[in-house]
User: Fold these one by one.
Assistant:
Number 1:
Amino acid sequence: MSTVPLVPVESPIAKAAKLIGLLAVTVVVLGGGFLFLKDFKDSKLLLVVFAVIWGIGATALLFSVLNAIGETFPRKVRTWLLPLIFAGPALVLLFWFLILPTIRTLGLSFLDETSTQFVGISNYIYAFTNPTMLESFGNNLLWLVFGTAGTVGLGLLIAVLADRSAWETAFKALIFMPMAISFVGAGVIWKFMYSYKGDDASEIGLLNAIVLAFGGHSQAWLQLPIWNNFLLIIIMVWLQTGYAMVILSAAIKGIPEEIMEAARIDGANEIQIFWRVIVPSIMGSIITVTTTIVIFCLKLFDIVRVMTGGNFGTNVVANQFYLERFTNQQTGRASAIAIVLLVAVVPVLIYNLRQFAERKAFK
Amino acid sequence: MSGKVKAKANSKAGRLATWIVTAILVVVTVIWTVPTLGVLVTSFRDSRDIFSSGWWTVLPHEGWTKTGEIQADPSLDLDQPITLEGKTADFNTWRTGVETKPGRMLKWIGNKRTRTIEVDEKEWVGFGVNLTLDNYKNVLSAGEIKYKDGNGNEISRNGNNFADAVLNSLAVSIPATLIPILIAAFAAFAFAWMEFPGRKTVFVIVVALLVVPLQIALIPVLQDFTRLDLNGTYLAMWLAHTGFGLPLAVYLLFNYISQLPRDILESAYIDGATPFVTFVRLILPLSVPALASFAIFQFLWVWNDYLVALIFLGDRNRVVTSALAAMVGEKGQDWHLLTSGAFLSMILPLCVFFGLQRFFVRGLMAGSVKG
């Protein structure tokens, strides 16, 4: 770039001094900032502002200092050192937070609750025989089947219908909106919908009010076995249908007009066009959305945690993981459950890798 | 396709089909919006009203209103079926209310001896809505709060200090969004435009990590944070969210940065720019759309996250989701606080979402590993 000035030749000593100075400043900023944040208690607002600036500034500083050090090396070293500096922080964090923990969790899953005694596969035997775990697996299966079918099915239906409406954008924005709401927030919203006072005259939950209006009796919905699972699944469908709709809608818009036209000329009605033209054309996107929702259902935690805490027969595997680790202090069992969750996503993982290899994105 | 529909809409059958489609969409959209609307409306209602009537009663509707009281004739035999205004029913039926003529209902109050009867008449109500900001004031407060329950009794509770939670959420979310972007952009640039051994293998690992469930990492990382005394600090949250968000960030940004034209980079190198300068002055500005897409994604994810906050923050520096979840546990029926808290937790992500929806959708598309 023409804006870069020619670097004046510096003596090695000046260069070294400059680098040492830079390093010193970095250490002071990183360490000093952290210690300051730990002890600062006067004004929360000030603390937040300082924390934000420090966190982001420290990251930027780290890169420029590492790069400045890297650039002082001769060309031969630079060719491998600079990529390492650029990709290094990401690789270190990926290793620390994902790769290494996976191995460590695997190791912990063969140890007892104190993480000292080897117990063989007994944690896994527990995971597959304990009644609570079996109940959780059954519930996760409900989530997988009905949650995925509901989300993808409704998303596809709305995408196809909205494509034919003049107010497409407005409908889609409103159905998409729950995507911005946290599971905890959604939990409160739906807990209010399902709320129950046990007084037919003045129920304030909409579901009970509707049931009363049709002459029924109010119910403690979240404590109603089997049905409560479906009421929780509705929350997920409400949250995620927007995602399915947006991806599938874009895919539908990508179908060439000529194909639809040709099918119409051949006398196909709209339902035939849907099943024989639209669905096959967007199969790739349907699979993508389905796998995303499947993984989502496997890891599902927040909704159950907030709505029922896993009680009344609504427990799921990820909540049992939490209970084992933090309520029962059974680190070994919790680790085994985490490994089971990982194994469950392996098929999707392999599918993703295969897709990635086919795309030849890597030159 | 829309062109075709417009052409078809001229025919009678076509117009009917369009109406049916619109009707279905309106129904679905209403179902989708009503739950959130209910919470929004409730958060502005007086606590007394919340406990005694459904939120939909703020809408104008025809309902029973008490218009007066009458005393029953002292000579009336209450052990026999009672006749009032020409209607006969037993005492218990009178207590639940009997419509003596359309739009007029009599209801016995209390026990038999009071002989007091309430007169209710059907009227249009709901115009004079009693709205307040007290719920928000109460939920933000850290001190003692007072409110009235459905029967008018005053109740006092400790506030949940949502003001603090909102600040914590900001302190967690902003760096936890920008730090991974910076780290991932550097890495994506290295993967796309620099040569180093094992480049391809490492990137395949990144793609594999995209779907790995978070639960797998929580126990060992918690051990590390405990050893480093980081639990409950913002730094712990930044590190965790950066680590967990990196696979998607690197993947998304790589897809974008590797598509940039080779000539731009080459001419920069010919001009003598170092990789660092090229990256900061050229690649970053050119990648703004991809950076924005991921930023929105990550911001919504971090702001709305509960699991990571629950485990690494615990009760210290509670963020909005954990404060709200704690409130559900402690005050499960205090709907005036829960709804206003829920709405406070939603308002910022909703603004980001509606303001920057275009970027968000683009990020969603790019993030799905497509066939």
Number 2:
Amino acid sequence: MSPLLAIGLAGVTLGVAAPRILARLGRLDQAPQATAYLWLLAAVGALSAVVLAGLLLLVGSSHLIIDLAALLETCSMALRAALDAPAGAPGPLLGLLLLTTVAAGLLVGGLVAGARAWRAARDQRELLTLTGRAQPSLPGVTVLDHPLPLAYCLPARVRGRPGPVVVTTATLRQLDPAQLQAVLAHEHAHQARRHHALLLVAEALRIGFPWLPAARAAHSAVARLVELAADDAAVHHHDRADIATALATLATAPAPTLGLGAAGPNTLERIRRLTAPPATRPGGALLLAGLIVVAPLLGQLLALTAPLLRVAGMPVCPLT
Amino acid sequence: MARGGFGELEQAIMDVVWAADRPVTGREVVDQLAQSRPVVYTTVLTVMDRLARKGILYKQPAGRAHTYRAVQSREAYTAQRMAGLLGASGNPAAVLLRFVEQLPADQADKLRAALRTRRHDRAGREAP
């Protein structure tokens, strides 16, 4: 198989097939954190396939293949045969287009998602500074006077200080102490496991690469999986029933002031999962999912490096 | 939230401004604050000017001094800053992770009904 074909196959597997398979393996929900990483890895791997294909097409132009041959101290004909890169008119142009698409997507996605997050963080810190209250009985928690029962957290700060966990007065009224502690454990799990960073990457990918199924699907999948992961972490030290009841109480609380957008479609599923935990372990499903993501990743790297290594030890052109 | 530097003073100043139902002078704010804490006049004015630069206070010349008033009421300010978090303006930013979102009314009713049935079932099993 030609290297270009192999890289293309790996790219399609990661970018199109992997998201479908990851979405269907229900037992992956038993390992939500690892699955979230696999989603992002699949999307990033699909992009790396586009980059490698672009490089290969670019190298196909005769000038660059001669340069590369000189670099490897080998013969350009042997190199061309090994790489099987299509030479001729559309190759380099198409290669350049692929590389530009990925670079532009990374730039736009990163900038838009980053700016949005930065602005929201700045607004929140200002809001908390001006209106947030500390509660002596709840260290590390900021209380906001607000009629909506909210609980949320900001990312852990860069300089190592924990970011704030915020609850509103309405939340304090509606939850008993055990339920509140369970909610706080859920939020602390988000911070400790860097879920904000995972979501930020997923959001940047979604914005930058709307044409890539893996990038399109990763965001909602990761958003859902980090909630499951935080629920699982909270279950370690708190009663399942407390988390489930807190979820139900806060999700069904009347929202008096604001017309809210789409509600989390995963709430009912989370409650079900907490009250009737599935007995199965992720086992084979996680192994399969890992294989589907990691094998094409390694494959595309090998597809490019193996021919280079092979010809690198071939100093003389066989035909001259 | 850990409040270093002027954060706490900013909050105290805004409490005074929001509580007043008219524009206030720096002197009035200082007098109010001085009832509960030691404050320095120039520090308070510096912080108020900074709040004005951030668009939270509106500063107006009045005679030889200035008066200040809040650009938005406390409620409006909170609601506006929460908009991003609540997803009212499209996608919430990845910087905020909410515990749970409120369900729409019909789904909330269904969930309440389901929980009631569940509790009823359990009560039924426990009391034969």
Number 3:
Amino acid sequence: MKAVILAAGEGKRLRPFTEAMPKVMLPVANKPILEHIFDAIKKTGIDEIITVVGYEKEVIMDYFKDYKGLKITYITQDKQLGTAHALLQAKDEINESFIVLAGDNIIDNKSIQKLILDRSEYSILVKEHPHPSKYGVVFLENQNLVELVEKPEEEIGKFISTGIYKFPKTVFKKLEQLNKQGIHDLSSVVQSLLKDGILFSTNTADSWMDIVYPWDLIQVNEIMLQNIKVSTGGTIEKNVSIKGDVSIGKDTKIYSGSYIVGPIIIGEGCEIGPNACIFPSTSIGDNSVIHPFTEIQNSVIMNNIHIGSNSFIRNSVVARGSILRHNFTGSSGESIIEVEGEFKKVKNIGSLIGEDCTIENHVVVDPGCIIGRKCNICSMKRIRNNIQSNSKVM
Amino acid sequence: MVKCLILAAGEGKRIHPLTFTRPKVMLPIANKPIIEWNLLNAINAGLKEFVFVVAYKSEMVRNYFGNGEKYKVKIEYVNQGEPKGTAHAIGVVEKFVDDFIVLCGDTIFGENDIKNILNTKKSIGLYKLDNPNEYGIVETKNDKVVKIYEKMDKPFTDIINAGIYHFDKKVFDFIKKTSKSSRGEYEITDTINIMAEKSDVSSVMLEEWRDVVYPWHLLDANEEVLKKLDKKIEGTIEKNATIKGKVVIGKNTIVMNGSYIEGPVAIGENCKIGPNCYIRPYTSIGDGCHIGNACEVKNSIIFDSSNIPHQNYVGDSIIGSGCNFGAGTKVANLRLDKNNIIVTLNGKKIDSKRRKLGVIMGDNVQTGINSMINIGSFIGNNVSIGPGATVKGVIEPDSKVM
Amino acid sequence: MCGIIGYNGFRDADNVILDGLKKLEYRGYDSAGIAIIDKKQQVYKEIGEIKNLEKKLPKIKGTIGIGHTRWATHGGVTKNNAHPHLSTSGKIAIVHNGIIENYIKLRENLEKKGFKFVSQTDSEIIANLIEDNYRGNLKDAVFSAIKKLEGYYAIVVTCTDEPDKIIGARLQNPLVIGVGDNENFLASDIPAFLKYTNRVVYLDDTEICVLTKKDVKVYNKDEKIVDKKENVIDWNIQDAEKSGFPHFMLKEIYDQPDTINQVLRGRISEIHRNINFNENVENLLNSNISSIQIVACGTSYYAGLIGKYIIEKFTDTPVFVEFSSEYRYFGLKHESSLVIAITQSGETLDTLAALREAKNSGCKTLVITNVIGSTATRISDAYILMQSGLEIGVAATKTFTSQIIVLLLIALKLGMIKNKISAVSLYEYIRYLREIPRKVRDVLDKNNEILDIAKQLKNAKSVFFIGRGVNYPLSLEGALKLKEISYIHAEGFAAGELKHGPFALLTKSTPVVVIATKDSTYDKILANIGEVKARGSQVIAIAEIDDTEIEKHADFVLRAPGGSGVLPSIPIIVILQLLAYHVADLRKCSIDKPRNLAKSVTVE
């Protein structure tokens, strides 16, 4: 059986992190979301994945090549019109029943197995959710799908669609038919199939995580860190304290006096310390340098990052390539953050810093500020608001 | 002529770091690779023609056994190609066998049991195991197989699939009909289930069975095999060295004065033991090793060419080949609260169910003077441990702990 | 280049050969074919990539066969021209990688003898030539046939009259034997059979091998049996995959942020403020070095030129850069110098020869290479691995930038050793190095801008590249890249030299690419731009991000972060690579395998 993963979308609400990479490639626990999904699929015995790519597809293709014996075929969706349209692009590669999943929702292998083993031709994976109205709410009867309502106005129902389905090959006819009518999203296709009288069995997902806003990265990072492979690579100097579950990559150096409390994952080729403190649940990517007397807690620090000495980073996300010179303070607290016109109240949030920024020394950033990609912030600045990408703050 | 197929293709990922440089079947127990015990027992059971299915690090197997001349039997090799599962591994040898028995190379089977399987056509070997949770269990009726089940959390029987079979050419048709399991592999247990529906598959209860799933199981296997050894001293024992109980000492090995060896212990060839060292029961020491002054080694397996030369303690441990302990390096093997030792393997926490477990050390590890290795540590190949350093947990290959 | 494979064993040959061809696809992918013996030769061929062939193949019975994946040299891309080729009687099947130069004459002779040909390829000749010489012994027939061939080749042959053997022969082109258990393999490259066996025997030039299911015999050109050494391959062979990119070269350009990190990995420490190499290299660099000679070919030579600027600047040690082909015959070899050889593959013949000469003269030798276990690493005193991964595109991209980074590291290390660089400065340089990947990513983001500029160059008959200081070798490299893959004549000049001759060539239709970073000679470069424009030529400037002056002078501007002082700007190199790539793509040139060029020149 094959799996189709829809990975063509941008993920606008995750800007600025998605300005140069597709949502599915954002890392949690030092692995792109898509890689976590590939891992789960590999455990189910599926050996071929068709990945529908589009936005910034080179990032995906360059990272994966063939993956641990899984055959991966890339199909490009030239225009991101919607999930059903994306699935339709994979038509030529499918000649039997298949599973379709979104590339930006982390799912575990047992849940996928449930779908595979289900005898019904059509099946959907659902999940109980405290706030179902954000998603496609599903109504069940006797374990079968009765109705799917996309983002209802009121708080109704308690199950949502995970967007993970099993379909027979014949579903493509329906997709083509609806595509011609300008219907491009899978939820509508499912509703149409239901109207036709198709029987959808349902299975409950064990572990399903959606990442919609930048701060979701921090939460999901914490959950995924519970499953890391605990091992110590690189060079650990004397008088380094390592407590709890910690994974340290090859060629990384942890210098004396550093205090690392797991669950933590540190990538390859990093330099940490001396006297740096890394507290749970933090991920640090490859080739990053954390200078002395810096404290990092519950954050996602991506690859190639420089954090100068005496810095404080908590509940934050720092994207690839950014340089934070010494005495950076990312205050953490409650904040109301504007994302694509919506205002969200978020507790315990620090800084959200985009790719390739250069932040000079002694900069203080208020909780919840989103600093765009490639920003330059001069020293001694106090940042109270979001900074647009490519800005200079003098 | 019934042939004997031995499956020797697996890497043995759960036995890292010991299997980074050798396939699982070549791990030594009482100074012989696991697979050699099976070979010898099979030869004693009357088998003369062998086919080894190899893949991972196949050259280690091939270089060790050759074409079987030194055992006066015929050994052929077939490369599995890709690790697609046990049914696939057996399927690859279709053109080489007719009536044949199959042994999983990493499980030790006894001579009598192999004879019984040989005498029962179309059969599988079963074993009664106290804790069958890690294994596939088998439902039988009147000594015929009804179904083999995958491992389950609450098994309904304690009879497990032992991993030894007797097949004929028809099995290959069933193998071709076997579909991928949920693990993505072609498993012989699935094949047998298909076969059992169509015809009778007999079951044979085994008397002996020893599997190695986790590294510390090697220590258990080592103990069991050592118990059966006969005393054989070939090296040189100095006058004031003490040897008690069943001890095997290989050619050109010298045991110097003051050495105190309590069997069952096996020591290989060209070793230098002592002076003044203490080697306690259930210890196997490979070829070319040096156990030096003021060292104590107990219930451990030391692979070839390793040195535990000055003031060291090694207990309940496995030390890979080419390792060198700096003076004073010690291994802790017991918790202060005396509870079971929990280790982390491939990211998961596993209860070793042992109160005593020292270190599982790969090849070419160097330790500095007075370094300390904590209980249940896994140290990868080529790791350097600095003077006075403390090591705990899992240390990746090529790392340094200063 | 093509990929060839042969199998003789117990498995179904169709699966083994298809698997192997997929691993060889990087050598050519315009058509593929397979021929398996089951009483007769069962031949299937398709144009396009291997997956086209795979879709059309029925289940083929047989455990002995040959396969081919083609990059057309003689004859167009058609099913008939695809390999394997059969002899007229259908008994003999061959696959061939190489070029038979005297094929026309041979074809005429064979036609006179009654042989018929169905393709326009030179390869088909070989099948009939073998049949013509066949007197019941395939090995003898192959020996006789190859004596008549002029050119170079790697071939694998099967014959229905002797269905228990496959025969391989080579001259110049690679052919490797995979020694299995009850099966044996022949292939252009190891990955084709690595999953079945890791024991390899390298067939040497003029040797022939005969493979049965159980054994391998190698004969030298005097038809005597030769004892060959079996090698166990335990290094990781990386798979060559385009994975969705239209060309390997583009993928390799995009690999650069990662490959640059790889070169630095484990070698620089920001906290310790130092640079570390392995012990042999450290010993070498710490010894008394009074001068340095860099020897290399092609793009590596340009890396060497860049190395000269940086090493001299940081160490005050004289550096001489020479073409390997010149150095080996004419270079001054003095035992006081350190000879640094740069060879991506580690097998470049001229560079190997230069290395040997240097070593024999008592020089200290250091190699910068990408391939562990290559010949160059075995000759030299020490080596530094670039760790860039496999580079398939014939035009060097990621290996070039990796070589420059290595040279930078050597320059900095030597500078420290000779006390010409302080720890404080070193810290700044290390920061600079760490920030290169993100600057490269910036350029990759601007891919579309570069494509727009490429449209300006698409129809040019000739393009000049000019620069000063370390930008001069960059302009040589820019010109080389453009030449190699788009077939447009291009030349790089030191900007100051234009007026001493080359100006005569400038016309209105000769665009000039000017590398105009803000270093000490920036004003002079502006003046050069003026001179060029005065002759009516279009100027495309590559300038720094905050340069506002340049727009007033150049017609088009591409921007990248500059180097730092004498340090070359790696982002500018990436611009030059993308520029050449897009021009070639617009002109529909064969980018991964340009005509007449071969990766790793192992021929003199």
Number 4:
Amino acid sequence: MAWKVMHIQEQIRYYIVENFLFGSNGLDDKDSFLEHGVVDSTGVLELLLFAEETFGITVDDQEILPENFDSISNLAGYVTRKLDCFCEMDTRTLGEL
Amino acid sequence: MTYADVEALANKLANALIAHDVGRGDRVAIYLPNCAEAVVAIFAALKASTIFTSINSTTKFDKLSYILNDCRATALVSHASRRSMIGRLCAEVPSLKFVALAGAEGGEDDSTELIELERSMVSLAEVLQEFPSDRPPRMCIDIDLAAIIYTSGSTGRPKGVMCTHLNMISASTSIIQYLENVPEDIIINVLPLSFDYGLYQVLMAFQVGATLVLERGFAYPAAILNRMEAERITGFPGVPTIFAMLLQIDLSRWDLTSLRYLTNTAAALPVTHVQQLREAFPQATLYSMYGLTECKRVSYLPPGELDRRPGSVGVAIPNTEVWIEDEQGHRVEPGEVGELVVRGSHVMQGYWELPEETARTFRPGRYPGQRLLYTGDLFTMDEEGFLYFVSRKDDIIKSRGEKVSPKEVEDVLHRLEGVIEATVVGVPDPLLGQAIKAYVVSKDGVGLTEKQVLRHCATHLEDFMVPKHVEFCDSLPKTSSGKISRMSLRA
């Protein structure tokens, strides 16, 4: 499990550094994107698209919250929870077959 | 917080300012994101008979230092998370003598540099404990300056619009009248207080005694919608970018039936968005408005006219007169294009210490001492006096509802090593209205990348000024006089 979170976190970090920090690397995983001026109001929408496209998840409108998106670790945690949710559903469906 | 709480805290900070010899007519800069302390600081500055200036919290060091030196600020209220930047700032801004930091642990900052500079940096929390909550005596009158609001200018340097108490109260009284604000209103403000549209949400709420819910922005729409539902929000001021984001969301998940009105300004809403917003909020009234910092607000479209004239920004706000002039100064006929001129007690005093620019924009009015505002915006007016925006006379870009000076962005681009020349234009963008696009000619062999350009911009500019697109080219198109032709790049 831990390796998966790590992997997701690294992918998110890479994306943030490349697209929002334009290559500079001074952000901690727990730093708030908003407070550090990393993303602005429309930047969050880009982040959302990235998460959907990269990890194949669907972000529910009600989930566009700071606790899910406002730092590298928050986003990694959120993506992990979403992916786990899908895994459980798949397992159950297969079991029923 | 109750009004009594804000009153007591603002009195305390006002008394602290006075005790530090910051008094009538001095400038107090507020460099904070939207938070209760920012509101307390505004009223404290006013109570101490000083002039406040609220600076966007994403402003970077160079511009912040420019603004503080431009208005020779003597006091600054900011946050402890900016402590190191403010330490550097104290060295650059000789006029500063008092700095209060929200979120600080407490105690006077005894760093040797500050002692050498004879400045004091104190914890705001401690000030709010130490000083008395008695209301300080009022020293100013209503034709004194209350605020300087910085706005982007075509020269690339921000200019400070000087606002008297009378100007601001005239503007807010007029707006309150047509929005029919009442003490029962609960207004949510996601707009920065450095932006006059955001600032007036505070002033108007305080004037009528309404409830104000202050948010740091609209970045997380679900968080704002949760808040709107929980607080039973009645008033929601926004700009087209915010409404475009809102319309991408399935709003049926939230109970927003408490909403009485929505307001839009800063740029026109696309007609399709007007329709979608009315469908999404059938019980709420939508106000399309137009204004500029130089007089706060010019016009609003009475909601009953939305169906007939969805593309109009309406008629003059109460207690305001508007007309359209051609280049020779003659009033034009209905349907003809000309510059919009505004007359009213909300027309501000001019630009701080910029007499030439002031004379160009604020011209003598009908009676001695009056000023007319020449907006620099081209409009038409129909037979019944309804206004239709045509375009700007200058190159100012409107992105995310905020004015961006191409020159200011270009000056930053020119400071990047390897850039020979650069220009920026506004290109249509569904979310931002206009997105900023930079054209850059770089030196051969430097290998400048888009990322380097964007990183440089993000380090020196407020977030809404950072280009969205960068294109490298061999040369920039020029006019016959050798100036860069932005027109041909936009085409």
